[in-house]
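Office hours follow-up: a student asked to see two folded examples consecutively, so here they are.
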Amino acid sequence: MKTLMVYNSLTRKKEEFQPLIPGKVSIYTCGLTVQDYCHLGHARMDLVWDTIKRILRRLGYDVYHVQNFTDVNEKIAAKAIAQGQDPLEMAQFYIDAYYQDMKGLEVAGADLYCRVTENMDEIIQMIHVLIEKGHAYAKEGNVYFRVTSDPSYGELSGRRIEEMQAGARLEVEDHKEHPGDFALWTVAQPGEPTWESPWGPGTPGWHIECSAMSCKYLGESYDMHGGGVDILFPHHENELAQSRCACGHEYAKYWLHHGMLTLPGGEKMSKSLHNFFRVKDLLEQVPAHLLRFFILSAHYRSPLAFSQELLEQSRVALERLQNTVRSLRNIKAEITVDGQSFEEALQKTQEAFWNALCDDFNTAEAIAVLFEWNRQVNQWLASDQLNRTWSDRFLSAYADWAEILGFASAFQEGEDLEENLKTEIESLIAQRQEARKEKNWAAADAIRDQLDTMGILIKDTPQGVQWQKK
């Protein structure tokens, strides 16, 4: 198994990945607060982790992934009340919409999705343990985590307690012991669903839900925790602190944070700023494989600007790969070639591709490797050096790389085109060849023009006529 290096936000350095249980990888990622449709900023996490899991499984790991839904909080309640809906029914509507978006994006999804409303007993129990251990206190129906009780608090974000703000769902109350103390349980806001607890009816704080659910489904220690860099503080910092204090030992071993999706000027894309692109709307305009290719063209930790113009650049780039694949499919001849040089070039590319992916899942570098390979293949195509055997070998490599990165459907489009148009195109090519044999150049040119109008480019080679979509 190749050595996999992972950047750990907790230690702020790349580390060799060593799972807690050899051969197995446990993952928890922070999912949606389901108050609206999923936008592309949210989907970046799903696409990134779908790819990470593909890579891990190819490396031979048995992967188990849990992701949550925050299906109760004051924002969901406020929106539902304003629209005359039941908050829990509205949350379910957006959960169902999320599943549809993931299906449209060709994302396999988590092995288990869990939600706050189905795990209230575990949340209350963890809060109870924190109070018993002196890490939390109750005041007027609310329960707060005592940040000063955790000597390691701030380790993940690199912040000192003295610099902290509240970082909680509610404003700083006078009865908090420290302004950085955050809510574990709160008195419900008007219209918000409530649950009974030892401290009175209320709802859980944002951070405690992930601690309780991840420990329930993955155990008190697991391998990877993922989410956006925008929730590293306060959410992940607080989640780590309360989990460590409740369980008495470390929590997630590796913390992976993806960069933000922004507008070209660097402005964050978010629902609160009303500048986001909904996945359901984008999928009506562009195929899923193009959105994935766009997302993976940047390293997952890097910020990524999105616009229709930048998406078009990705479409043009991806089309270069697609055109090469179509050209390879059209090679029919079995000429003698220098297979040794092809084999060496292919193995060198395979090695570079996997070196990139094992360097903190660097899909951007892996895609750059593919384009360098694509340039070489196009040179071989232009000089008619390939035969059917090697074109098939190369097609298998393209399919394998695309499957690992998750945009295999980009190349399947070419297969569909050939199935639908092959008979007509090859009939026209045969008619053109007959016209050329009879030296009927006008008829031959007319057929070439007809094929050109159909979007088909033909090329006369010593091995015969080859064609591809323009």
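And the second, which I mentioned at the end of office hours:
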Amino acid sequence: MLNKTNLARIDLNLLVLFEAVLEERHVARAAARLHVSPSAVSHGLGRLRELMQDPLFLRQPKGVVPTERARQLAMPVADILERARQVISRAEKFDPRHSVRRFVIGAPDAVTAVLLPRLLKELQRQAPGIDLGVRNLVGQFESALGELDQRTLDVALLPLADIPARFASRVLYDEDFVLVRRVGHPIGRKLTLAKYAQAAHVMVSVSGDPHGAVDKLLADRGLSRRVMLTVPNFLHALAVVAESDLVAALPRQFASRHARRYRVEISEPPMPLMASPIRAIAPQAAIADAGLAWLLDLLQEAGAATRGTS
């Protein structure tokens, strides 16, 4: 990014300043975040503009906006800073027994409902000081990858088959979908494709859009269904199924672990539904962090336990 002459004229704080202004879109807020004066930020930006030979940020009534050059520099600068932070963090070896770190995991609730019981048990045993933040990512898979890039998520647990090369991933377990309805549902135990299409359905949809992958599969067979209700997460869908005559297509591992508690029946679908491995995904640069690598190992062990009980 910079030649040898320019590297002799730059310090890491200028890149930290660039990152802060890029994220805050405001010089005064960036200054407050960095605990320096706005004039110090303006002076640093002047040095960066000279080095990069670009204005980088243009003033607007409510702050600043990055130039195209600044947008292009965002990822390389973030990568440089992440590597620098990793070098510094390695000065103190990660020890899960004494660590008080907090990791943020993003995943659909059907995935965390499967993995969290085992994961929490291991955290209590191996790392009693570590905390977790869990975010529900139903229907937000692409944006989750962006959040991994920005480091607002440490790990994403997603049903993705193809992962961009900038990420590392580990397969935790394989997941597919089954049909779920309440015990004693009038539709009966054996569901033909026609009966399934005629039933009233509940579907998981964050946006409320009642059309999804199942509808495309039905349309390929010249059929359609009525989605009577959409809900924003899988646990909500399972609760609705247990107390109504609606049916749902839900992840197998998730449904099987909660069937007895919710008094629902599970059956194989009359046509193949969605299937995908559940992967733990993190940026390639970030997994050099010993703490994050340890968390990925723990998640992989929890996934292996899931496969052993499926």
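Two things to take away from it. The chain has a mean pLDDT of 89. The first strand starts at residue 57 and ends at 60.
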